[in-house]
Specification:
OB fold (Dihydrolipoamide Acetyltransferase, E2P), three-stranded antiparallel sheet, globular, alpha+beta, six-stranded antiparallel sheet, single chain, 9 strands, about 20% helix, about 130 residues
């Protein structure tokens, strides 16, 4: 159910790494819990974030939720399509619903995130 080619955080973000670039989004579980997403606010390209730093917020029909960066680095790209089509997060959380791409300072930070199996066990009781 959860892709094996990404890592997961306890705050329900996912991260896909290619070299020093990390593409980040929210998990299918998170978008399901939020319901229909109506707006998203993200940091600007050029922003520097620390692991655990605030990446932005998502407004849904149920709640406003904060999004946190799983890695430290510079935001090099933001998914501009989400400004006019935030529902992409609901429709394709691991595809066109990605949020940002960060050039990581330390790629080993990703090792602290969970595998898909670990994440599935983590959300089971919720």
């Amino acid at each position: 159910m959860y892709p094996d080619n990404v890592k997961y955080t306890k705050s329900h973000e996912w991260v896909r790494v290619a070299d020093k670039m990390a593409t980040i989004g929210i998990t299918d579980y998170a978008q399901e819990e939020l319901g229909d997403i109506v707006n998203i606010e993200l940091v600007q390209p050029g922003s520097t974030l620390s692991a655990g730093g605030l990446l932005g917020s998502i407004d849904s029909v149920k709640a406003v939720s904060e999004i946190f960066s799983p890695v430290t680095g510079e935001v090099v790209e933001v998914n501009d399509e989400l400004e006019t089509a935030p529902e992409l997060i609901n429709e394709e959380p691991y595809g066109s619903g990605w949020l940002v791409i960060i050039k990581m300072d330390d790629p080993s930070e990703v090792d602290e995130s969970m595998s898909s199996e670990e994440y599935e066990r983590f959300i089971e009781p919720e």
